[in-house]
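Mods, move this if it's the wrong board.
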Amino acid sequence: FISTKATFSMGSGPNDFGSSRHHLIKQCEESLRRLQTDYIDLYHMHGFDGVTPVEETLRTLDDLVQSGKVRYIACSNFSGWHLMKSLAVSERYGWNKYIAHQAYYSLIGREYEWELMPLALDQKIGTMVWSPLGWGRLTGKLRRGQTVPEGTRLKNIPGTGPEVPDEYLYTVVDALEEVSKEVGKTVPQVALNWLLQRPTVANIIIGARTEEQLKQNLAVTGWNLNPQQVARLDGASAQRPVYPYWHQRQNTALNPVVV
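Not the wrong board. Structure tokens:
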């Protein structure tokens, strides 16, 4: 299964970035050459291009599918309205639609649940979760009163990823540690299993520096946390929604909460 992306900068020229017809066709051809394949299974737009007309982007992607060079199309890091507008344009013209959305989601980054999860559920979009351990914060290596371990992503490239309040992180890690002892799994395995049980999550994208890390990550399937354990993790990681989501949740009869 081959998946790759386009949109972000591949050079300094005016046509070396974005989701224009020129850039997408060129980058698709370049990807096929580099990957030594005749087609791409899933072609992602790495981000939304607010300068290029959505119609131009989607018509180009539809042409790539019709030509056999791409099997399916997907997006990444879209806002709710970015994705919904794109789906509406594809529907209007009968073009291929985005079938998946690669998005950030983790126990310490649950904003995905406010808009993108209900949208994905309604429009039948599968979500591919990136950075499911929150930039390595949910590996169990970060604890109260301890310095950031050497060799970790947060040590090597500090200041990357979303800001996470220390006490909030420690509260979530404490809950993960408690559940991990109950189920006989590691802290990251529990964090990943929690994600796999969330609505709309089709898969999670894992990254490993060592063979042992890869084996540990792959062992998150074949078992499930029980509802009580999921509820405890939900409670420890709860975040107050921003407007308008907190207002909508005041009347769940009109706006049912997904999770």
